[in-house]
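=== RUN LOG ===
request id: a7f3
mode: sequence -> structure
chains: 1
length: 138
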Amino acid sequence: MKTREQISFNMSRVKSTGSKIERTLGKALWASGIRYRKQYRKLPGKPDFVIVCAKVAIFCDSAFWHGYGWPAAAHEIKSNREFWIQKIQGNIARDKAVNQTLAELGWIILRFWDHEILTNTAACVDQVVSVARQRGKN
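=== RESULT ===
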């Protein structure tokens, strides 16, 4: 069994920026000619990528942290269930609130799951390009 120090050490290795999924999507967007801002602090939820002129906010969501397949995924959690279920449900609620706030401000919100980005990056980029073009930018 892991000690508290080992667990906190492992948790400290979780990146909030520059993750593999962010790097993958960012490189593909840039290669397709989409210019963006990263970790845009001027908007609620600090989107991973923002196309400011088209008002498109893009989030790269990890399946575990953002509750992919929830609540069925909740049954998969074996250790420290109460903590993790509360944490992930809070993340889901926060994501919904951020989406609503951004929509009210006139932003288009695109959220991609980690497995979508890693297995079908081109489809994610195509969706971003399509939305940016519909908004008349890029």
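=== NOTES ===
The domain at 16-134 is CATH 3.40.960.10 (Endonuclease; Chain A).
The helical segments are 4-12, 20-31, 63-66, 81-104, 114-119, 121-134.
=== END ===
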